[in-house]
Amino acid sequence: MTAVELAGITKRFPGVVANHDIHLTVRKGTVHALVGENGAGKSTLMKILYGMQKPDEGTIATDGEQVTFSSPADAIARGIGMVHQHFMLADNLTVLENVVLGSEKLYGIGARARRRIKEISERYGLGVRPDVLVEELGVAARQRVEILKVLYRGARTLILDEPTAVLVPQEVDALFDNLRELKSEGLSVIFISHKLGEVLSVADEITVIRRGTTVGTAVPAETTPRQLAELMVGSELPTPETAESTVTDRAVLTVDTLRLAAPGGKALLDDISFTIHAGEVLGIAGVEGNGQTELVDALIGLRHADSGTIRFLDQDITALPTRKRREQGVGYIPEDRHRHGLLLEAPLWENRILGHVTEKPNSKGVWLDPKGSQEDTRRIVETYDVRTPGIDVTAASLSGGNQQKLIVGREMSHKPRFLIAAHPTRGVDVGAQAAIWDHIREARREGLAVLLISADLDELIGLSDTLRVIYDGRLVADADPAAVTPEELGSAMTGAASGHLEHEEPPGDDGSGAGGAEDDDGSGAGGAEDGDGSGAGEAGGDGGPGAEKIPGDAGRGVDKTPGDAGSGAEGEAR
Amino acid sequence: MRRISRITVAGAATASLALALSACGGTSTSSGSDDGDKGLAIAYDVGGEGDQSFNDAAHAGLQRAEKEFGYKTAAIEPTDGETNADKEQRLVSLAKQGYNPVVGVGYAYAAPLKAAAERYPDTTFGIVDDATIEAENVADLVYNEEQASYLAGVAAAKSTKTKTVGFVGGVDNPLIHKFQAGYEQGVKDTDPKVKVVAQYLTQTAEEGGFASPDKGKTAAEGQIEKKADVVYAAAGLSGQGVIEAAAANKIWAIGVDSDQYKQEALAKYKDSILTSATKDVASAVYSLAKSVEDGKPETGIVRGDLKSGEIGLSDSNPKFADDAELQAAIKTAKEKIISGEIKVKSS
Amino acid sequence: MKKFDKERVLLAVAGPVIALAVAFVLSAIVLIASGKNPVEPFALMFEQAGFSDIQVLIVNQASMYYIAALAVAIGFRMNLFNIGVDGQYQLAAMTAAIVGAHADLPAALQIPLLLLTAVLTGAFWSGIAGVLKMTRGVSEVVATIMLNSIATAVIGYLWLPDVFGVKIGNNNTTGEMHESGWVPGIDMGAAGEIYGLVILAVVLGIGYWLVLNRTRFGFDLRASGASESAAAASGVNPKRMVLTAMLISGGLAGLAGLPILLGDTHTYSLNFPTGIGFLGIGIALLGRNSPVGIAFAALLWAWLDKASPELDFHGYDKEIAVIMQGLIVLAVVVSYEAVREWGLRRQQRRVGAELAAGHVLGATDNTEKEVAGR
Fold first, then answer.
1. CB–CB of C233 and A300 under 8 A?
2. How far is A555 from chain C (nearest CA, A)?
3. How many angstroms separate the CA atoms of C86 and C92, rounded?
């Protein structure tokens, strides 16, 4: 029995295709996870299913019957409800009032509604009290109110958009219990996430979406996080091989014990230290939200470090404002080009000025030099193959890839000595991707130092000279891109591995012990076993209890003998 | 490309404007014709017609003149935030059309009226509440409001039981200060123990001090809470709110400018209106019209005071008129003011 | 390229034209609904625009509207809503009047002194809101509304006879300014005088355009308005930009009352026009924050103001002009947004179409490059 079936869904926005030929089948009484990187098209797909947007092509069927939704009301009438990532509750109203708001016709606003709320709450174990003010509730309780709100309106299929993003681990477990409760009552849940561990623990089925299209489905019992990660980021893309090393010994950027704390005091970045040399690309791998954004902000000067120093060439730039840093040769390809890299409604030539308004050819003294920047924009458009009919069109009318090429061209035009490249090829078509890689490589040859942050592990491995893994605001592991595989990086990204990543490093979620225990005296054997397969995770799981004692040992053992172990493992693995 | 088009646009705009200015040599006041029999015209102050007070009093005079002399009259409202130039335009426009006399209601018309009078020396102008213009063809219709307010103070002091009386001024300006000064003096001279609580509704007329019954009501309620049991409102249309609050709390209100006991709009509350400090703008306006009609236009300062009877205290409310002790006190005070024994302060 | 220029002109003109047409039609409906001739009032008002004395009134009034609207517009350009222009210009006009009445320098110094006084007062008053927003995150809308109220109270205080007030009859004034501070007008004969400071308004308009479009600072300001995050990433200090924009907006606002103060009244009295700051908001909206657009909008507004009193003499209510002003503002907000979106989508389609047709700037060897990139 299928609850919802999406077939061949395609949605185009001006300049981009957000969804392309997506297929998704959700069975009744299951939790179906939809996973994919940010920007992969999950949200658009769910907006289509929830009636907020209309697909350009494709069909939606609920309970085997084809339907068209022109508004969320239609979707609700068909038993589809959505719990948004950002709660839509009025703080100064009670739970009861929030729930009935907009659905007064269903059960009135009084005793009948209260009875119904209690009934739902008990049935699914939500523990919602109808007469409490929402402002008194914590995040998890609010989320349960949102879920109840949807159930109250008669939903049989619930869409949860990144529900765990705001929860602490215990709350996540409680939420999962609720979801299982729902499932056992025959309801279906579509669970959107990019946290693989969670997905595997709660979902019955998984659909992976990448670059706007479904790339595969998986059954959790037969899948490891690594396989899933692979599906998510893809490995069949053109590989960005870096031919010969151009790394010099001139340090361009040195970060020393950098710390950045959230207003509450929680460290967003802690103990970050690294050096990037001229001609070196340092890649930072990590699951999104582990401090990459904050690191970039700290480097470009949007946020200032609470402690630690940043040195650029021979100067301490820790306290310098953004503009000074950029003037001195820090280039910036931002993670979110619409928010940080472009003025969407301004013409291209004005976008060419953005970020470099004090530099030639954009200005002379305090005056702008529109002619100069227009001419230079034409040059960038040509050199960087930005496809546009002219430089007077707005940035918004270009496709994502062309926007990105413009940004890359702009940043490269000022001969940066250090380039921050955050997801430089995200949302970019394959051709543009190759071109952007090319430009980065070329600049690297000329002595540019690059900090590369990417969710695309192949990109990271292919472009970087050195790799570091960021987890929970710390750089927890490093690796040699020539020797590491996406699988190994993936396990470090989930916090399972640390130190220097080599093939003997036992990967797997909770099973670092299994391999580590054996590794105590010699690192070769365990690593060799791991090298060939993905079964290690399960093996590790088995060995879990015994392993608990000595994870530290394993880590230390690896740290001590990186060189030896590395070469040994590599030899055997290949 | 873009630059040129912008400059072209700007140039075209300037040119067309200049062209318009030079091409249309005629002024709105140089054309137009005199048709028929036109008489008195008034230009209202802020609040306009229907304020049950100051402007309406002027209008009453206008109606009387219209009826009596059988000519065409005009009454024009102001706009919000207008400048002196607008006021002058209005007066000039009226004079040009042949209205005579032209009366500006309120001191705001002082400067514009002076200018208009210079441009139309053959028209008689009148201005209410201003005595700064000295011109052959201008009559300054001013009043010793403080004298009537003094009598209102006497009446209030005699009527209060709580020994607290209130004063609500529409706008915090010199004209209304006169009302307050006279009132307070009257109260103190009658009974030094009586306390006066005074309040102004707004700083400027634009904020609605003369035109917001709701503000008046709130202010009066506040004073009633402070135990005031007689409230004197010198607040134009806002006074209605004061009277309403007084009626609701069964205390006395004293009206202003017109005899508010007799006004239809306030008939519901008339039993709470003790008296009104009248200022007979109607008859001053009418007299001016009549003097013009008689061919001997008034000029210079035309002052209304207790002696001339153009200001006073109304006695339409029988409860007030029949209170012999109160009436005696008022009569004494009135005589003393007329004789000059009492000098009423004006600020 | 040429095509896109035409496009831009079309888009720039479409919004206001649609808004005005809608406002005219709706006003006519109001007239019909109240049983009046829907055409004659407009005919009368157009006729008024032909008279030179009315034109002088319009130009004079428009000069003040223009400056006030520029002050609002510079805030808009950086996503700040300075609703306090009204309080700023009134307070500034008052301090200028006070200084003008007490200082007596030669005209060459006196007039700049008065202008400077007004600019500083306005900037100071808006700066309070700017500092509050910068340091405490207080919304500038709330802060400036409050400051409007406080300005009124301060003005009331300054009018006290023992502070700076001078009573003339029943009017509060600040005393007559020394003649060296009077700015002579342009004599138009019987039509009256155009305020000398109308020229100041023109100069400010040109300056506004130059600063915004031709300086680094202007670019930063526009970038901040278009996207705060992108501007911050480009190196603009957002907090400092907030304060700077507020100060400039307030400084400009301070000048809004000066054409009439230095050109006509020579004193700040109870008769001083109020509400220009609020009207400036609608005018800035209608003029799309562009110096030329605002000039047209200010003239239009002044025309509605100055031509409408005539209606009273013909049995129509002059309030029809006020209704129309309100309708224009409403229509403008709707039509601009609609036109903007329509234009954006249209451009995206065109770009798509031109790319498909192969009209691409430069790079004819795209495919080659891609291959090389691998």
1. yes
2. 38
3. 10
Q: Calculate mean pLDDT across residues C255-282.
A: 89
Residue A514 is part of which domain span? 502-573
The answer to whether position A20 is within a domain reads: yes
Task: Sort A84 into a burial class: Cβ within 10 Å, 0-12 / 13-18 / 19+.
Answer: middle
- Cross-chain residue pair A343–C226, CB shorter than 8 Å: yes
Question: Cβ contact (<8 Å) for C265 and B111?
Answer: yes
**pLDDT higher than threshold 80 for residue B140:** yes
Rounded to a whole number of angstroms, the distance from the CA of C55 to the nearest CA of chain A is: 37
pLDDT of residue B185: 92
Q: Are residues A324 and A193 in the same domain?
A: no
Short-list C315, C285, C293, C321, CA closest to C23: C321
Q: Is A289 left (phi over 0), alpha (psi -120 to 50) or beta?
A: left
pLDDT score of A103 more than 60: yes
Contacts of C256 in chain B (CB under 8 A): none
C-alpha A56/C-alpha C49 separation (Å) is 53
Contact call for A354 and C234, based on CB within 8 A: yes
Using one digit for the tens of pLDDT, what is the confidence trace for A228-262?
777 776 654 445 555 667 778 888 888 888 888 87
- CATH architecture for the domain at B145-278+317-339: 3-Layer(aba) Sandwich (3.40)
Domain CATH for A84: 3.40.50.300
| pLDDT-above-70 percentage for chain A | 80
What is chain C's mean pLDDT, rounded? 85
Summarised one tens digit per residue, pLDDT across range B162-199 is 989 999 998 888 888 889 999 999 999 888 889 999 99
What is the DSSP track for C14-53?
A: HHHHHHHHHHHHHHHHHHHHTTS-SSHHHHHHHHHHTSHH
Q: Which residue has the higher pLDDT, A380 or C314?
A: A380
A357–C219: do the CB atoms touch at under 8 Å? yes
Length of chain C counted residue by residue:
374
Report pLDDT for A544. 35
**Banded model confidence at residue A542, pLDDT cuts 50, 70, 90:** very low
| Whole-Å CA distances, C237 to A302, A324, C71, C223, C231 | 9, 11, 21, 11, 8
The answer as to whether A431 is a domain residue is: yes
Contact residues on chain B for C264, CB-CB shorter than 8 A: 83-85
> What's the CA gap between C344 and C350, in Å, rounded?
10
pLDDT in tens, B238-282: 888 999 999 888 899 998 888 888 887 888 888 888 888 888 888
3-state SS, residue A24? strand
The verdict on A219 and A308 lying in the same domain is: no
Q: Which of C4, C352, C374 sits opposite A390 (nearest CB)?
A: C4
In this structure, what token pair is assigned to residue A460? 């990271």
From C135's Cα to the closest Cα of chain B, the distance in A is: 31
Chain-chain contact of B27 with C191 (C-beta, under 8 angstroms): yes
- B28: nearest CA partner in chain C: C51
A255 and A216 share one domain: no
Residue A513 has pLDDT above 50, yes or no: no
The CATH class for the domain spanning C61-314 reads mainly alpha
- Residue A474 covered by a domain: no
- What spatial distance separates the first Cα and last Cα of chain C, rounded to whole Å? 33
Which residue ranges make up each domain of chain C? Answer: 1-36+316-347, 61-314
Closest residue in chain B to residue C191, using alpha carbons only? B27
At residue C125, the pLDDT reads 95
Q: Which structure tokens are listed for B124?
A: 């008689």
CATH code for residues B38-143? 3.40.50.2300
Alpha carbon of residue A546 to chain centroid: 34
Could you tell me which chain C residue has the CA closest to the CA of A345?
Answer: C226
Quick check: pTM over 0.80?
no
Q: Which chains touch B (3 or more CB pairs under 8 A)?
A: C
Question: Is the same domain home to A39 and A148?
Answer: yes
